[in-house]
Automatic annotation (TrEMBL):
InterPro entries: IPNS-like_FE2OG_OXY, IPNS-like_sf, Iron_ascorbate_oxido_reductase. Residues 9-92 form the Isopenicillin N synthase-like Fe(2+) 2OG dioxygenase domain. It comes from the Eukaryota. Transmembrane segments: none annotated. The lineage of its organism: Eukaryota, Viridiplantae, Streptophyta, Embryophyta, Tracheophyta. This is Isopenicillin N synthase-like Fe(2+) 2OG dioxygenase domain-containing protein.
Amino acid sequence: MAPPPGEYETGLFAHIDKLVITIICEDQIPELEIEVNDGQWMKLTNLSPSSFVFMVGDPLKAWSNRRLKSTNHKVMMSGDKDQFSIAAFIMPNEGTIIKTPKELIDEEHPQLFKDFDFMKFFFFAFSDPARRIDSGQLLSHPTSFQCPYGQVVKSQLQVIN
């Protein structure tokens, strides 16, 4: 439901997607905002009704060796109309290891992330310990937390240094 006229409120908190890809189809009310490099929020406006927004998730950022950027985004609601979005999420099969292809690693582009099991990362991303980590730092945070369903995520998610 839209907030009362003249009010502005969060519809979906700021976050970076933990799935590989999110594809969003917005209605004609611009409510999706992305965080730009200077920490400011920018509304995605002037999208045609047939536009789709392609959001890179953290696993694709790691797979691409940071050539693709996962973006912090949120939904802000205002006005007197309800806002509707349709999103499609893409995730790999259980047991998939996210690994940067050798073709994306060289002297100019050293491997930035250790290989990791997607499902362990995904379950950890929604665990209680992960809630204490900034969404944008989750991939690079050294972890050894107990995950839901008895899975343990070791330091496999940390940035290689």
